[in-house]
Amino acid sequence: MSPISENASIDLDADHDDLRGAVRALCTKYPGEYWRAKDRERAYPTEFVTELTKAGFLACLIPEEFGGSGLGIGAAAAILEEIHSTGGNGGACHAQMYTMGTVLKHGSAAQKQSYLPKIATGELRLQAFGVTEPSTGSDTTQLRTTAERMGNGYVVNGQKVWISRAEHSDLLLLLARTTPKEKVAKRTDGLSVFLVEMKDAIGHGLTIRPIRTMINHATTELFFDNLQIPASTLVGEEGKGFSYILDGMNAERILIAAECIGDARFFIEKASSYAKERVVFGRPIGANQGVQFPIARAYAESQAAALMVKKAAALLEAGRPCGPEANMAKMLASEASWHAADMCLQTHGGFGFAEEYDIERKFRETRLYQIAPISTNLILGYIGQHVLGLPRSY
Ligand SMILES: Cc1cc2nc3c(=O)[nH]c(=O)nc-3n(C[C@H](O)[C@H](O)[C@H](O)COP(=O)(O)OP(=O)(O)OC[C@H]3O[C@@H](n4cnc5c(N)ncnc54)[C@H](O)[C@@H]3O)c2cc1C
Predict the structure, then answer these.
(1) Does the pLDDT at position 1 exceed 60?
(2) CATH 2.40.110.10 domain residues, the chain
(3) 51-94, pLDDT tens digit by residue?
(4) Which atom of ligand 1 has the smallest separation from the CA of 166?
(5) What is the pLDDT of residue 394?
(6) Counting atoms of ligand 1 from 1, which one is nearest the CA of 373?
(7) DSSP character for 220?
(8) For residue 38, how far is its CA from the centre of ligand 1 (angstroms)?
(9) Residue 358's closest CA among 45, 38, 50?
(10) Over 50: is that where the pLDDT of 4 sits?
(11) What is the pLDDT of residues 372-388, one digit of tens each?
C-alpha cells in the first residue's frame, strides 16, 4: 500500500471543538494556584479528578452500554490536550483512558459488566498500571514479578516501581509472569495481565510505598509478598498478556503525546504574551528576533508533532496498525513540549523561575515525557528496527 492510500480513510480533521470547549470551561475552575498548591504539598488533585469524572470526560472511551460516551482515542486525546494547554496536569488521571483498551478488548463479559459502569460513574477508579520493575526497567519481558497458579487463583510475588496513582486507584492493571522464561519459546510469551482490586490486596500481600519525585505524580513502589488473587482477575488468556499490554501502549503513547501538545501550547501562549508585554531597552522583547524566532520555532515544531498525533489517533480509531505513528507522535511531541518549555523559561528571564508563573512547574512536569512511559532511545530503537529494518539494538 502506498503512503497516500494508507492515509486515504483516516480523518485528520476531527477536532472535537465542542468537547475541547467544555473541558477548557471546567479547567478554568482549576487555575494555576490550585495546581501550584497540589504541587507544593505533593497532594492528589482529587477535586479536579472528581469533577472531570462527574462530567463524563474520563469515561469517554467506555462504550455507551456501560455508561460511558463511547468516543474514540481522538476525543480522549483532545480532552487531555486541553487540560494541559490550560496549565493543568492530566497525569493525575490519564491511566483510566489508556488502560481502557486492554479491558475493552480482552476483558471478560463479567469483568466489563462489574467494573465499567462503576468506573464510568466514578464509583471505582482504574488509575494504576503496573508494568515497570526496578531491576529490569525498559526490558519489560524480563520482568520478575510472578503470578503462580494455585488452586482457584494465583499467588503474586515480586516488586514494581514507578507505579503511579496506586494509592488513589481502586483497580490495578498488573503485568506478571505466569510461565517461567525458561519454559516459553519467545520471551514475550508467558506474561499475563490481571485486574487487581486494591482493597482486597493492600495489607494482604501488597504494600505500597510512595516515592517523592521532582513532580507531583503520586508515584509509588509496590511490593507483592504472597498476594492471593482469584482466577477471575485474569484478563484474557493466560500467557498472552504482553501483546495485550502492547495494544494498550499505542493508546498510551498517543494520549501522552496529546498532553505534550497541550503543554507546548501552554508554553507558547505564555511566551508570546510575555514577549509582547515585557519592555526592555525601550521596546517589547518580542521585537527582537533572538526572542521571537525561538517562539516561532517552538510553534512550528509543535504543530508538526500535532499532525503526527492526529494521524496516530486516526489510525488507532480506524482499527489500523499504528505502532510507528504512535511512537513517533510520542517522541516528537515530547521533544516539542520540552523545547517549548525551555524557550518559555528563557523568554521570561528571571521571572520564569518564580513559582507564580507556573512555568517552572510545567517545565518539570513536561520533562517526564521523554522518559516515561517509554524513553526516546527505546522509540528510536523501535523505528530503527521495525520501520527501517536495521539490526536489532535491544
Ligand atoms: C514519574 C514516573 C511515573 C511513572 N509511572 C509509571 C506507571 O504508572 N506504570 C509503570 O509501569 N511505569 C511507570 N513509570 C516507569 C517508566 O515507564 C520508566 O521509567 C521508563 O519506561 C524507563 O525505564 P527505566 O526508568 O527503568 O529506565 P532504564 O530502562 O533503566 O533506562 C535508563 C536509560 O537508559 C536508556 N537505555 C536503556 N536501554 C537502552 C538501549 N538498549 N539502547 C539505548 N538506550 C537505552 C533509556 O533510554 C534511559 O534513558 C513511571 C516513571 C516515572 C519517572
Answers:
(1) no
(2) 127-242
(3) 999 999 999 999 999 999 999 999 999 999 999 999 999 999 99
(4) 8
(5) 86
(6) 17
(7) E
(8) 25
(9) 38
(10) no
(11) 999 999 999 999 999 99
pLDDT reported for residue 282: 98
Q: Specify the ligand 1 atom closest to the Cα of 376.
A: 47
Residue 8 scores a pLDDT above 60:
no
Helix (H) or strand (E) holding 42: none
CA 222/CA 244 separation, integer angstroms: 22
260 has pLDDT over 80: yes
Which part of the chain is CATH 1.10.540.10?
Answer: 3-125
C-alpha cell recorded at residue 344 = 518559555
Atom of ligand 1 nearest to the CA of 136: 26
The distance between the two most distant Cα atoms of the chain, rounded to a whole number of Å, is: 79
Question: Does domain 3-125 match CATH 3.30.565.10?
Answer: no
Average per-residue pLDDT in the chain? 95
Q: Which cell goes with 86?
A: 490550560
Cα–Cα distance measured from residue 19 to residue 76, given in angstroms and rounded to the nearest whole number: 10
Cβ of 162 closer than 6 Å to ligand 1, yes or no, is yes
Fold exhibited by the domain 248-387: Butyryl-CoA Dehydrogenase, subunit A; domain 3 (1.20.140)
Q: Per CATH, which fold does 127-242 belong to?
A: Butyryl-CoA Dehydrogenase, subunit A; domain 2 (2.40.110)
213 lines ligand 1 (CB under 6 A): yes
C-alpha cell at 220: 509509588
Q: Which of 367, 375, 380 to mutate to test the pocket of ligand 1 (most atoms within 8 A of CB)?
A: 375
Surface-to-core class of residue 135, CB atoms within 10 Å of its CB (0-12 exposed, 13-18 middle, 19+ buried): exposed
Domain boundaries for CATH 1.20.140.10 within the chain: 248-387
**For the whole prediction, is pTM greater than 0.85?**
yes
**Residue of 42, 93, 132, 133 to test ligand 1 pocket, by largest number of atoms within 8 Å of CB:** 132
Q: Given pLDDT bands bounded at 50, 70 and 90, which one contains residue 2? A: very low
* Atom of ligand 1 at shortest range from CA of 217: 1
Q: Is 163 in the pocket of ligand 1 (CB under 6 A)?
A: yes
Report the amino acid identity of residue 97: M
pLDDT tens for 153-193 read 999 999 999 999 999 999 999 999 999 999 999 999 999 99
Q: CA-CA distance, 321 to 299, in Å (whole number)?
A: 29
Ligand 1, from 138, 164, 213, 252: best to mutate by most atoms within 8 Å of Cβ?
A: 138
**3-state class (DSSP) for residue 115:** helix
